[in-house]
Structures are given as C-alpha cells and as structure tokens.
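Person: I have long wanted to understand how a fold can be written as tokens. Underneath my words sits a plain record pairing an amino acid chain with its backbone structure tokens. Those tokens are not coordinates but codes from a learned vocabulary of shapes. I should like you to check that the lines agree and flag anything odd. The protein I mean follows directly.
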Amino acid sequence: MDIFVKKFPDCLRQAYVKVGKIELNDAFDHTLNELSQHVDFPGYRKGKVPADIIEKNYQNEVAQSVIEHLVHESIHKMSEDGVRLYSNPKFQPLVGLSRNSEFTFSLVFEIEPELIKDIDVSKISVAYDEYFIDDKMIEQTMRRSMDLLDPVSGKIKSGDIVTVKVTNKDYFPENKQKVMSAEVVESLIDKKAGDTLDISFDNLKNYVIDFIGVIKEPLNVEIIKAERPTEKPIDDEVVKQTTTHKSVAELKESVKRQLEGMAQELNAHSKSSGLVGYLRDNVAYDFPKSLFIDHAGKSAFHFVETNYFVSETALSDLLKDEKLKEKSDKVFKDSYSDIVVALFIEDFADKNNIEPSNERINYLLALRAQEARISADEYKKKLAPEELDRIKREAKKDEALSYITQQVKFTIKNKLQLIEPKK
C-alpha cells in the first residue's frame, strides 16, 4: 500500500492510496473469511459456505467490507507516520474495485491541531490593571451598609431614596405610600417634596410589578419626602444600633477585609485576562475548521440570544445599532483566538504533566450543581461519565493557567479604584 498525503490549510488533508493486486487479493480473502462465519446459504452449514459462492452472491457486502478494511489499514499506516486524524475520513474511489487490478482511492480528513509558533512562558511579561482600596472607599462602604439617611430639602439626585403617595383613583390599598430609588426611577431626579408627576410603566423599571393589573397607566404620584445617605460622623453607638458590630473599628476592619477580598479577586482576573491576551497575540496554531465552526457557532448563538432576543428594543432598531455591529464583528475573531489559547494551555498541561487537584474539580462540580439548582451530591449522582471528563479537562486547563500565571512577570499598567468615589 502506497500513500501520498496532500496538505491544505486548516489541518485539512487528502490522502491518495494505491493498493497493489496482491494486497487487494489478501483483503478480499480476509473479508470472505470473516463473512463466512456469519453467512446463511441454502445447502450449506453456517461457516461452511465456499468463498466463491459468498463473493458471487454478496457482492455489495463483500465490496463494502473490503473497502472498510483498506481504509482502516491506510489510517493505521498513516498513524505510524505521525498523521493523527481529527475527523472521520470521507472516502472517494478513484477506480472500480476488482480483484484483477490495482485499487486506488482518496481520503479527505482533518488532522489534530498543530503548534506553529511556541513561546517560553518564563519569558512572558504582562501589564495589567491593578485595583486598589483606600480609607474613603472603606468609609463609603460602611455608610452604605448602615443605611443611614438624612432628609433632602432641595432637588432629588440619583441615589436618593424617595417616598411617594400613589394618587391614581383606581389604586385602592390602604397604605398608598411607596419607597423608590431615584437611581432606578430617573423621572424623580430634579423633582422635590410636594411635586406631583405621572410616571409611565416603562420608566418604573422593576417597580412596575407592583402596579401591573392594578392600575391603568401612567402612575400618578405625589412626592412625600426624599432622603440621602448621611454625611454625619459615625460613632460606636450608631454602629451598634444599625449593624451586628460593636464599634466603628470593628466594622471598619470587617469592611476592609471584604473590599480587600474583592480587589484580590479582580486583580487575579485582570492578570489572567492580560495573560490570555498575550497568548492570543503571540501563539499560533493550525487547527481544523470544524473545531472553529463548532465553537464560533455556539458563540454566535449566545451573542444573538443575549443581545437580540432578550431586549425591549425592536429588532429593526437593533440591526442598525453600530455598537452591536462592532461586537458581532468580534465574535468570530474572538472564537478563533479562544481556540488558540485553549489549545496552547491544553498542550502545556500535557507537556508538563499537570493534573487538576480534587479541590479544583470539586469547585467546578459545585458550580455546575449551583447552576442546576441542586445539591453537589445529587449532581454527582446524576453526572454522566462524558460530562465528568469535560469537567476534569476544564479543571486541568485551569490548573495549567494557574501554573503559567506563577511563571509570568506582571507589571502594573493602571491603578484603578475598586469603588467609584461618591460625587
């Protein structure tokens, strides 16, 4: 058997296979011997039917089995030469199949992804955005957690808490007062206590649920009062009355730990994002189009479902949205880059014998269970073997990315505030 493999981009290959007469006859004999064990033919016991009778009366079955045998042999021979198939080959005969002549055929298939441009992870330098906290952020968070409010005498601003009285004639509850955030219901901004106004259901956002089927649009309200988070000093007594803590110092330490944890998590994500961006720009792979089509198809579906289906805006207007157009153009490019990064991390894990820890696997299992809204134990019982394999592969990639992150030199590009300062 002689094989010539022609190369095409994106890991596509076409193998031309020539089978000599002797080898072809051996393939026929092998097939007839296999079929003779199962063929029932009048006048003969099973396993005793002569080969020439089988070949004459079961021509299609014989030809199909011979071809399958030759394809299997050609794949085995190519694998010995380092050709690793990624997809099932498409068979195409180039001449008719006959014992009396050579047989030639072609196989079109994709091979496993191939690394084109590698990098030394110990020489990677990545700039990232670092999040930080300060005393102002801590104090601002403390005040928010205590929910201390001062009355507002002037115009209402975003973030103020507003109490309104519903004046619609078809609104009958005994208590007609409602509390709303001006950050949510923007129609309240620049108004003041004593003002009356009509608010459309569209502008009520989540508050609309209290009035659907209760009143006819719009909502008529009179503003009773507005309140704003206090700027007064906080003392131990106020802390005791409004929180579970016993002093300002204790509350401050608790808030500080909370913010430090948030900053640490964001900085880890920022480093990871910077590293992934570096890998996208500096690693190169040749990989099958079928891999890209599968990943890009899922990404495109998710993008359309997220940005076009769940929306209050008309589809005709969404299709004209320039920002959405820019995002949609990135979907396929990002899919390509995502595959390159994933392939590199998987190869790196294999080369360095990196295996996921049980802790990381259990963490991913817990996340899946949470998404399914069942307990971790129940999720594990229902888990199919192939899904567990996928989770282990994901955990392995996470472990490898963590290992690479430890080898990389990180430098701070920008220092960003964890919390935007109060205006």
User: Anything to note?
Assistant: The mean pLDDT is 90. The longest strand covers residues 219-229. Residues 148 and 368 are 39 Å apart (CA to CA). Residues 2-112 form a domain with the Alpha-Beta Plaits fold (CATH 3.30.70.1050).
